[in-house]
Amino acid sequence: MKVKTVFSDFDGTLTFRDELTKEFFNIIDLLKGHGVPLIVCTGRSKSWAHFLLTHFHDLQFVISEGGGNLSFIEERDGRRLLKDKLLVEKSEVDRLENLTNILLEKYPQIVLSADSFGREADRAIELYDLGVDPKLKSNIVQFFKEHKVNYSTSNVHMNFWCGEISKMKAINMFLSAYDLGDLEDSLFFGDSLNDESVFEGHPHSVGVSNISKVLNRLNFKPTKILEGEENEGPQGVLSYLENLLK
User: Fold this and answer.
1) DSSP 8-state secondary structure symbol assigned to residue 16
2) What count of other Cβ atoms lies within 10 Å of the Cβ of residue 131?
């Protein structure tokens, strides 16, 4: 296939066991050499999207907060301007803020992730704390259902939001807004539960080998699943792209 755009999850897919490694930089260089943009699609906060865009100048777009925000660089008069676009209705963001305050008052033992203070379209609870107290997790899930709050889990967080937010919806909106081909011309790499909307809706999705940890919990699986330790995280992404683009 002729690849015009590569979308990828961040944690566990472009990072190796929570760390950025040389493979991440090699992926960026490889795609740059072929004129193919890399769009990171992460459950991390908008503030993390800003970090990636300001520290890695070969990145121009980051979809963050599970599809709730698009951050991008606009070149103007030789300057790199950082901009954001909210991908969900402002009324849903306001509803989320109100329900978060209610949730924290009802369950004061909840610890929001450190980057929740940099989030706009969603919030995140540390997954570790919920694993220690399964009853607390059950109560939170019940609260979400009662208030029609959506939620999903990544490798590190339980994210929750109001309105229609998903990585797949964000990818479709992105491709409609920018002249970078369509779904048939693009690839998606992922490894976790919050990538499932893309596994369902994207015709060319690739799961790096560490997806095996959650594979039996996915109703929709990637079209291609890599195997072996050598295909874990960014190592798998890099190898796949090298074979595809050679």
Assistant:
1) B
2) 10
